[in-house]
Amino acid sequence: MADKIFRVNMTDLTASVEEVPAAWAAHGGRGLTSTIVAAEVLPTCHPLGPNNKIVFAPGLLSGTIAANSGRLSIGAKSPLTGTIKESNAGGTASALLARAGCKALIIEGQPKEDKWYSLALTPDGVMINEETELIGKGNFAVVEALATRLEGKPGIITIGQAGEMRMSAANVSIKDPDGGLRSSGRGGLGAVLGSKKVKFITIDPKDGKVVIAKPDAFKEANRVFAKALVDHPVSQALGQYGTNVLVNIINESGGLPTRNFTQGQFEGHDSISGETMHDTIEQRGGRVKHNCHPGCVIQCSQVFNDAKGKKMTSGFEYESIWAMGADCCVDDLDKIAEADRLMDDIGVDTIETSVAMGVAMQAGVLSFGDGAGVCRILKEEVAKGTGLGRIIGNGAGSVGRAYGVTRVPVVKNQAIPAYDPRAIKGIGITYATSTQGADHTMGYTIATNILNVGGKVDPLTKEGQVELSRNLQIATAAIDSTGMCLFIAFAALDDEKCLPALIDLINARYDLSLTADDVVNLGKYILKTERAFNTAAGFTAMDDRLPEFFYNEKLPPHNVVFDFTGEEIDTFWDF
Ligand code: SF4
Fold this sequence. Notes:
Number of strands: 17
CATH superfamily of the domain at 4-203: Aldehyde ferredoxin oxidoreductase, N-terminal domain
CATH class of the domain at 4-203: Alpha Beta
Bound molecules: iron/sulfur cluster
Radius of gyration: 22 Å
Number of helices: 23
Largest sheet: 6 strands, mixed
Helix content: 25-40%
Distance between the termini: 38 Å
Structural class: alpha+beta
């Protein structure tokens, strides 16, 4: 089945299936969402208005047997940052969209009437249906209700109450193989879907299959690629302890942001560590290993049960545990798991919302360490859209402005994740220069700064950090186009067979002859396309800066500040 563009216009409630324009044909995932947003969205438009569009694109390898290829990219102009945005997540939707012959789904316009809708995508096109029953419900209720309403196992993309209320921290949730949820968390894309009045999208590919141009070459490339992933020691650690293996490692480095970014170490780190989580999961009969989409061979996800053995949450990630844990000084893994489940259900980004809670603690709205208070605010305020709930649901910057707090860890209004840029300077360059606001996944220098993958660059010195961040941001933009999970990057940096095998997979899928240089050029093209959109939206180099307190307040235990000049940061774009 030839891939097509599926387009839905919510203003006149029509849908069409279109040929792929030549300029889009070579792109997938982030490369495609950013290309479409740059081509079709007015950079100065209001992110929640009718001129914004939200684009869903499977990666170039999604829907195939290629290991770890099931990430779905979602793009739009972000209501949180005002920049272009791409956020990708696992779940089953990416593979199912690819099998339905959908290269990209574009949703544009805005309904004239105050009604809600759902979309049902099949290879024949998209049906737009009015929805009443599930409006106001959380994500888990949507997934549960659709399991009985619909036949088979369709893919589900949904928003919770936060998306309906167009909160800037609202995520887009994607059903995983077991009925759990994965989140396109960053940048408020759930609010954009909510602004289109779309509560959920179902995907049924019928008997659709992805066609491989050279099946034997594809199978052989996948064998080499999967082996490189499985053999890498970081993959193995991720499979055993999840991403939360990082709590003790980053704490040891002195770069674990604690108490709203006032310390680099958390005294309760052992209680929330990956090792403690692993033992707790085993004792309670959960699952230490779990995959967010079929075909993942690393399996960093897990199922975390409560003390009675009932599932509390899955995909319990380091960044969520850090944000609720160290940043808010909550040292109780069960409370953090409860908050994680609530945030997944309401449909808010766990990083943005938890960092917002940390700023609220700074402001005295609640006390540091008050995990029960966090859960109460999520249930009683954010889910119900009270005044306080909306302030928190609009992110860390919103809380800082509402309460007059000056220590607000955001770049381009997006919350800084789990690595303090004073003690791990490479990641500070990524936060500052990313086209999407502070986001560790855009150029994960932690691999080289802390984990010694792909070499070693001292996290406490400035030397080599701009180049490291630049190379990783270029590589990441390309990887985000393939549908691959970012955790393939560890093997790609260290194992000489991994990256060539990935390129062989793309070549065998499409009968191409791409080289490593082509991949680098793709990454550069994506970054420049995104930056050009931001420039047209009004952003300048002055926005590529960290908040003032990172330059003025020394971070213990190393007592360091972020000391890059503006000119030094700006050399990032010299390529
Ligand atoms: S390694 Fe983790 S995030 Fe990546 S595909 Fe597997 S389960 Fe999903």
